């Protein structure tokens, strides 16, 4: 019995303690009292909505005087209260509808209210009243509100870079707190002509606070790309276009006082950006400059310096640092001709960041000496342009001596220096031969043509050609009567014709997909007699559907166009390119048979 009473008292104490904690948390929660304007600039023929919102109920609310404005509605009061996960959410709003009485710059002064014995005040806000507008706010549509509150911006790191210097483009979607974005999809991706481009994947779209034209906004980074200009002068960066799905608040409220939202979709574009690319200076350009732009280190190393003949060693020519690592040629070492040198193996370890490429590239040479002796690998130089200082820099490697300890001796002497790719002539002992002065000749006419084997072959050949000709004629006649088979062959030839350029570019991602897209467009242009400027996926789908083309073939054609667009900013493997080429051949063949 005593144990039961103890448990009851413990339970009641726990309830009392949790209630006190909840009450204390609610009491210590911050009080907010704000003033929100429907717009900061309006025409004299428009209306202004002013909301005074508090997150805790209070008394003695006093609005401002609203000088230079006339109150046409209000105050109207709305209250919203809810419990979510044991936590109370409360909101109370006083709303006024105002009409300006004059043009100019005016201030909505502060309002006051008493909450828990303390007086809270709103922050005064300025309003600009202009001349009458064509579309007053009473006629503003949901699309108008979305246009005012959505902005896609392309931020370019450098507007005046050098040739082959990294330029970073960051695409940000700015969203006003007045609307809410639910989803988006890309409509048109830039092709970055005259640039070498590398996308930096955005793994997580996190909303951040920022400002746009001096007003508070939230923004999300949608795309990052690093560009290396490949020509000097004025270069255009094509715009990125998106379709954004937005929830826009209306002036209507539900039964509980909550604002009602309307969904719409808007197309936004980052706009075309132009940069001025400076050419690399000619003054001070080294003779061995191969196009490297950045800040680099250079070295030449070998795996060993002493070995025996017929053994192998590795010589590595390496460039490391930050810059256009994939866009220049590595210098080649000058090696003695007595050393057998195999074609180099290229290696790279490169990461792309917002500031550009960083890492290293190298050529690994396998060298096999044939004779005993000492072989020097002379010092070689590597030159690059440093855009930070605007000057050319040259780095020279150390000279390396290779000593072959055991092996045969070169009879012509040990070659101790490099040659200009000249091969030594090794004597074999059989350089001189005597001319044969007793030829085996026969008199002309000694052999008879009539009655010979060649005579009978030429005589019977026309008789053997007669059945071959008959068989060939019947075969061609059978092929001509096969209408369906001829259609298939014609369609396959047509597919090979339009995709011949793309097949030549297999392995080169950008050139392959440009050629593939052009081949698909040229095929439709020839078959459907429509201009390239009129192409769109919806129009292509509609026209092919009218021609009674199978839906699977239509979808296959559209998916190929989508792959061509995605390949411009996504990594595609050689296997994927081969699959897309085979799919394109099949789709064009099927379409041609149906059209």
From TrEMBL:
Origin superkingdom: Bacteria
Transmembrane segments annotated in the record for this chain: 449-471
Keywords (A to Z) from UniProt: Membrane, Signal, Transmembrane, Transmembrane helix
InterPro entries given in the database record: BatD (IPR025738)
Signal peptide: 1-24
Name recorded for this polypeptide: Protein BatD
Organism for this UniProt entry: Flagellimonas oceani
